[in-house]
Amino acid sequence: MNLNLHPSEIQGVSLESMAKEFGLPLYVYDGEKIVNQIRSIQNAFSEVPLKIKYATKALSNISILKLIRKAGAGIDAVSIEEVKLGMLAGFDPTEIMYTPSGVSFSEVQEAVELGVMVNLDSIPLMRQFGEQYGNRVPACIRINPHILAGGNAKISVGHKHSKFGISIEQLPEILATVSSYDLNIVGLHVHTGSDILDAEIFLKGATILFDAAKDFPNLQFIDCGGGFKVAYKDGDPATDMKEVGEKVSKAFLDFCDQYGRSLELWLEPGKFLVSESGYFLVEANVVKETPTITFVGVDSGLNHLIRPMLYDAFHDVYNLNNPAGNENKYHVVGYICETDTLAADRVLPEVRQGDILVIKNAGAYGYSMASNYNSRLRPAEVLVWEGKAHLIRKRESFEDLVKNQVSLEF
Ligand SMILES: *Cc1c(COP(=O)(O)O)cnc(C)c1O
Question: Cβ-count burial of 15 within 10 angstroms (0-12 exposed, 13-18 middle, 19+ buried)?
Answer without folding.
Answer: buried
